What we know:
By secondary structure, this protein is α/β, with parallel strands linked by helices. 26% of the residues lie in helices and 24% in strands. It has one domain (5-242): Metallo-beta-lactamase, Chain A. The protein has eight helices and 13 strands. The radius of gyration is 16 Å and the shape is globular. The model has no long low-confidence stretch (mean pLDDT 93). This is Glyoxylase, beta-lactamase superfamily II. Pfam families: Lactamase_B (PF00753). Residues 18-221 form the Metallo-beta-lactamase domain.
Amino acid sequence: MIAIMELNASLHRIGSDIVAAYLVVTPEGVTVIDAGLSGHWRELLAELTSMGRTLDDVKGVILTHGDSDHVGFAERLRRDHKVPVYVHARDAGRAKGGPKPANAKQPMRLGPLLGFMAYALRKGGMRTAWLTEVVEVHDGETLDLPGAPQIIGLPGHSEGSIAIYVPAADAVFVGDGLTTRHVLTGKKGPQPAPFTDEPDQAIRSLRAIVATGARWVLPGHGAPWSSGVEAAVAAVETTARAAK
Length: 244
């Protein structure tokens, strides 16, 4: 089953609440934000077709960070269709398959964990094609891509994690800066993401996205949040304090 969600005319999601990627759609073309898992390729093609678009309309991919469940089909787009892939300079090595720090023990429940693993297997999570070339970006840049996406440093989950603010879509894409569905416990609502390198830093970094005032907060895992960025960040901070 192909899972696609149109959030508004310029904002589409492919994937699911387990792993998601997004398309920013403008008359000038399409910007892909995160590339999910390799098996999401079919959903990308299906959504482009449904909009009367083709792969030629995809002008760039921006990765919120370099983990395997965000790299997905990015190398395929770059290699076969000459689509540039943008990632923060501090996560470039990670996106190319480099090492990542070992995370502390994670809270988990068996059902959600097995569900995540099964979904990842179905969607090619064991067949990651790491990037061989990237375009490095830095905090504060506005990229010359559809939607004029703005780069906001969001270190913590990884050293080079970023958020991407697209004013035309009234949306900020946060990758694993936060989650609205914990893949290991199944808990829903804005909260800290698992597998985070520096959890305290990740929470502090979220203050950087509040100034966007965006309505949509779009994580790599979990349902889209439409109640505003300030409420999302406040909920994460509350959850983090309660866990200490």
